[in-house]
Amino acid sequence: MPTGNGAVRSGLDWSPDTLRTLIVGDGPPVVILHGYGLSPFTYRGLAELLAWRTRVAVPAIFALHGRWSYERALTALVATLDRLGMERVTLIGHSFGGGLELGLAARHPERVVELVFADTLGMSREWVLAEEAVRPMTLFRLATPTAALDFTRSWVSHPMQMVRAAWWGFVSDRRQEVATIAREGLPCHVLWANRDTLLRRSDGSEFARDLHATFTVVDRPQGAAPVDHDWMYRYPGLFTVHLERLGLKALS
Fold first, then answer.
1. Could you read off the pLDDT of 38-60 as tens digits, one per residue?
2. Which of 24, 170, 192, 208 has the smallest count of CB within 10 Å of its CB?
3. Is residue 3 in a domain?
4. Is residue 1 part of a domain?
């Protein structure tokens, strides 16, 4: 398919070492790391809003070939960026995706321009979202129809990857990665839904403080439904507005 502004390509035929990826637009590279059990297409609305001035890549972070592990996911993510020719990127991680965002930035700070974390609890052990993985009805309550369908497909198509990812989220400790990123001085921003029913705002605030990041609580637009954990893909226009307010280099 064409690669000009607004075009979409999916890496369905890529090598086993890379991740199937939704690609849209041209410009400074932006990588979106999606939430637990979701897929790149959940975030297509946001990607298309950013596409007129950036080149957006949304990798399928659970669709590894073979056994899922944090190390293999990071390796595949780096290989995917290499395949796309994205040497330095703006990273945006939502929910579970923020954990991989931390790992990539801590190990390869030279490849990161700036970081945005949306409703991500990246430093705590016993990550709440891993518990939610075994209680999927809560996630269905938060999901759009597209997200609910993606979540179902993820469990049907690669259930063991999902189980292993949830276990990693539950037992891992990412505080050292947070400290590394803060020490590197990478520009960091944390965006938080005003009514996140999965994660506590106080934890998000602590996460931002340890990262030396800005912390922004996002309220609902007048007359709209409350802004919850799913706001990044439910209200892509609102999310884009807040990205612009952060003064990201990719959007300047």
1. 889 999 999 999 999 999 999 99
2. 170
3. no
4. no
- What are the backbone dihedrals phi and psi of residue 225, each rounded to the nearest 5 degrees, phi first? -70, 160
Residue with tokens 């960091």: 188
Give strand pairing partners of 56. Answer: 24, 30
Contacts (Cβ under 8 Å, ≥6 apart) of 122: 98, 99, 101, 102, 174, 177, 178, 207
Decide: 101 and 93 in contact? Cβ < 8 Å: yes
pTM comes to: 0.86
- Domain membership of residue 2 (yes or no) is no
Domain count, the chain: 1
Domain that residue 127 falls in:
8-251
User: What torsion do the CA atoms of 158, 116, 9, 6 make, to the nearest 10 degrees?
Assistant: 150
Please report whether residue 129 resides in a domain: yes
Residue 243: which CATH number?
3.40.50.1820
Check pLDDT > 90 for residue 174: no
Task: Tell the residue number behind the tokens 């595949």, with chain if given.
Answer: 76
Long-range contacts for 161-165 (Cβ within 8 Å, ≥24 apart)?
A: 161/62, 161/63, 161/64, 161/67, 161/68, 162/36, 162/37, 162/62, 162/68, 162/133, 164/67, 164/68, 164/69, 165/36, 165/62, 165/68, 165/73, 165/96, 165/133
**Contact between residue 232 and residue 242 where contact means Cβ atoms under 8 Å apart:** no
User: Helix-strand-coil percent breakdown of the chain, rounded to 5?
Assistant: 45, 15, 35
Distances (CA, A) of 64 to 59, 106, 147: 10, 21, 20
